[in-house]
Protein 1
Amino acid sequence: EAQVTQNPRYLITVTGKKLTVTCSQNMNHEYMSWYRQDPGLGLRQIYYSMNVEVTDKGDVPEGYKVSRKEKRNFPLILESPSPNQTSLYFCASSFLGGPSYEQYFGPGTRLTVT
Amino acid sequence: RKEVEQDPGPFNVPEGATVAFNCTYSNSASQSFFWYRQDCRKEPKLLMSVYSSGNEDGRFTAQLNRASQYISLLIRDSKLSDSATYLCVVNKLSEGQNFVFGPGTRLSVLP
């Protein structure tokens, strides 16, 4: 089954404790992206990647890191989480090469930083 | 001004009604346009892409007006299952692959 998976689905942590949220897709997509969703603000893009070893900042990259060492995986790293990073996070992937790229989203990771 | 703006909603409509959502975008370099649907606490899913000539998929019709930087979504004969948040999305291909989502419009279809 074609899908994007994220782990963990729920995470409660404390300020400053490094964490990683994993994202994996099995559709051989070149493009992967991370978003956060907050009430009243909608989805905002954190980082995206056009291919292996190619990453770029989205609209809200501060406080986050990503890596793309393999095509299927795109982990999101919070080196020192803060309460303002409490949010719902989505990973997404799509093919490149056409005018209408459908993005497939993972189920989301709900992060709470206390 | 936000880069993508939508009707704030919520829209509460009876079953069978026709409802229209509007979306405006500020960046004239935007090249691809989409409507996504998001159910409560779930991931967004593509509803339809929006083409310059307008396109229809069953009860759903999308229109694009590049001159006015405006996108619309029309839902005819609303069903209870249409209740969701509808997200307008634009993509600036000239700047890599940077998708910008609108804040969404919530629709509740009432029996």
Protein 2
Amino acid sequence: GAGVSQSPSNKVTEKGKDVELRCDPISGHTALYWYRQRLGQGLEFLIYFQGNSAPDKSGLPSDRFSAERTGESVSTLTIQRTQQEDSAVYLCASRVDFSSYEQYFGPGTRLTVT
Amino acid sequence: RKEVEQDPGPFNVPEGATVAFNCTYSNSASQSFFWYRQDCRKEPKLLMSVYSSGNEDGRFTAQLNRASQYISLLIRDSKLSDSATYLCVVIGLSGTYKYIFGTGTRLKVLA
């Protein structure tokens, strides 16, 4: 079946512009995660959605970052007034439900802020 | 102190060698542990879960030492295709599903 998809695959933007990144999880997966991975670094947790519960936003680095998820489907991560330090790969992952810990990752969106 | 720490490497080993990585975690209440593999410019993929009793999957063996708060990954008979970055992942607290990733250990298997 289809895996996690993300769009765009690459995004180059000017400092100060807003960007919106999209994630389509695996159908039926109730949990969805966003991570940031800077070059040569590990994955940094940003936000976690589980069903209709309030999301865990504890990893969002500033109020310029926000994310939404419609039901148990697509999610968008929005970065306002982008800064050069926002340049990274943004990875989305989904997990079926509480019966499994396995996350399935999308290919990521490579964001470059010039 | 970082919540999850790994030696970044790289570990350069010849084909056929045995190599082991350790990962330490700071939260003694951590409940679940995993190893993920990430190939260059690719997304991470689950390699194996780590159980208290230790577990083996072919050439890969994972161990958990709760007393010393570390997990390990042993790769026997290394293949060129094992070259990748190995990420240690910890779930902090029981009932939560927030994954904490280490920065990864890079492995290069040389012909």
Protein 3
Amino acid sequence: NAGVTQTPKFRVLKTGQSMTLLCAQDMNHEYMYWYRQDPGMGLRLIHYSVGEGTTAKGEVPDGYNVSRLKKQNFLLGLESAAPSQTSVYFCASSYTRAGGQDTGELFFGEGSRLTVL
Amino acid sequence: QKEVEQDPGPLSVPEGAIVSLNCTYSNSAFQYFMWYRQYSRKGPELLMYTYSSGNKEDGRFTAQVDKSSKYISLFIRDSQPSDSATYLCAQPTGGGYQKVTFGTGTKLQVIP
């Protein structure tokens, strides 16, 4: 059972380049999230989706775009990478919202480490 | 002000010690809290969740919420080297509580 799979796991970009991070989940979850994790800042929500075809902004959305064309996939795009976007990116999914009918447990991928030079 | 604030640590304790990890929260509207554990270079995993005030126990772990002081605590009894990880508290936030906001995490090292 794969759970949440993120690709690529590592990437080095030059300032101004673009890239897309792919998140795939095989648990038929409705909710999907993209977080970034930086030292001293914890996990910060970039964008999230509550179902296929929907997206919403989180805490730090600037410089990122997302799409959820298929229920199982959630893509995070960087159109013009900046050094401030050097981070570890985590995708997560859940069956329902936290504290709802079930625990709303978030299942995380193993992270994608991005360096922007 | 962040909705969930957490002691940054790091915290280093000897094996067998009782560990206390703490968070404060600002949004009292939805009394549901979670603790996630994150091992180095891995994604976080749900450790415990709890509703409203009181204690919830699961093996060596106890989660406690104090509504009056808006304090969330995680206690680890008989700590083991395998407990060495970063612990993050979390709370549902936003319209419809569709988002989950995390504290910054406390890094714990249990020394054999």
